[in-house]
Amino acid sequence: MSKRNSIIIISLIVLLIxxxxxxxxFYNNQSKKVSGTSTNQNPFGTPxxxxxxxxxxxGTTQNIPQNIKTTAQLIELYKNPTSGSNLFLxxxxxxxxxxxxxxxxxxxxxxxxxxxxxPTRLTNETIPKxxxxxxxxxxxxxxxxxxxxxxxxxxxxxxxxxxxxxxxSGVLGSITGDFITPNLNQLVADxxxxxxxxxxxxxxETYGVSLSSTGSSEKQIFNSPVLDWNISWPKExxxxxxxxxxxKYKGYLFFFNPQTGSMSRIIGDMVGLSTVTxxxxxxxxxxxxxxxxxxxxxxxxxxxxxxxxQANTLAxxxxxxxxxxxxxxxxxxxxxxxxxxPDAWYQGLVSxxxxxxSINTNTxxxxxxxxxxxxxxxxxxxxxxxxxxxxxxISFMNKNDLxxxxxxxxx
Length: 411
Known about the structure:
CATH class of the largest domain: Mainly Beta
Number of domains: 2
Radius of gyration: 26 Å
CATH topology of the largest domain: Lipocalin
Largest sheet: 4 strands, antiparallel
């Protein structure tokens, strides 16, 4: 082989090696970009001409339709921390809302069609540090739930609100009542407001007791070795029981019949499972952990199928319509930062800024009802959404400060 040919061959080999090193370097850097911690999937599908989406390295940015006018109206009903609200139709068939001041237990009422500004205070009896209010009988009865610091016992005071015609001191009513079973770590009312169901833990086992709306006729109807449940009562014959969610564990949803004592598994084997069930227990909206994010779906109980919903949120941020129980109303985060969900959100390590959407589960159509921040200087991380019987109003609390908000839905 001539010296000239040897030089050519050696040069080619050097070029091939250099090219390989350059390819490896750029390919390796590109791979690192793709496998980052941000989730950039689009929860609403491919943007249309009227949509705008901006991706960020810290998480997924949701699509918000641009230049879409909505007539929904949002008001901050109460700035101070609250313990839960109840939307109902009063005797005049008007939408009304009652809620409890978290610090002192005072009950307030607001009628959107006739009132503007400050809600009316109904009671002035002081019940400090009310953590939860469970409502019955269209807002006329409720259970004040709080921790007794002196005994470390969870107390539930079942009260009746008597509204008078006097306006002395601006207070229209008073409360009377009595304590029911102590240390109930969960308490829910049936949809008719006539019965209560509560869970308590004793000797490393969970027991479920039923009570009347007056607190009488207490009866044990459930027991389980599982200690951590989230419960709701959407239908008289169905109490939903979902194992408390975590990204570390698989979760399950059961339907418990308080009349027969039977229990049916509906969905399960899903990590981080959280659920909300509609009024005839035919549809379940649920969220699950998904890597450093979460996924959202709707399950058809009768057909045992999932409905394709182009939205991404936590089930805790949703409420089903009552007049039309196939309509789902959800607070959907603008940005979902990568984290361990839902734990990070429950623990307050992550906070969301939400907008309010409607989801037609028959058609899959999603509609922006209200873009928070357009008319108010606020970022709202929605919890405890409630809906009026005529599907005209939604109330919710801001997780950041427990203030209460009321949205008139655009119909």
